[in-house]
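**User:** You know discrete backbone vocabularies at least as well as I do. Would you mind producing a protein record, from residues through to fold? Write it directly below this note and I will take it from there.

**Assistant:**
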Amino acid sequence: ATDAECGVIYTPAKRGTGTHAITAAYDGSLLQEPAQASTNLEVSQNPTNSTLECAPDRIDADPTTCTVTVVDTVTPPNPLGGVVAFESDRAGSFGNDPATCYLVESELGTASCEIAYSGAANTAGNYTISSHYRGDETHNPSDASDVVLVRNPTATSVTFEVAASEPLGSRVEPGHPANCVVTVRDTSAAPTAPSG
């Protein structure tokens, strides 16, 4: 028996996951009959791992910044990109509408992006923020979550008053004590007594 061989390079289409049947057909020659053979090739996208970190993790009226990092867990990795969508288990607002951000690679196979988030007024408690990486042409989706404590994101006003301890109006003489009074007022639609 005498063997002869040749080869080709096959590149699966992007997003073309699953089983690909590869068939080779020999047309024959003056001395050999035609023949064919086939094999199956399993094609899959690279798995990813997502992490989400919101900082600060305790907020009042100011928003927190939630940063998602997505990593291609295969060595060597593929260039990674795509869109991440966010959601919260409680009422609040994200800095982008819709609540998405576009990944930017910091190194091959590692990408991140961020979004701002504010809790709802008069709704204190733990908020679970979730990120959903949708995947791209060569990567599988992945999810992550983080918890943010919203203490009391209400509108407030502050006044500061200095007065002399003795009946001198607002004028304070050197060597004489002064009374300093700060007033914090909740100016939201459903106010509560400020504390802290």
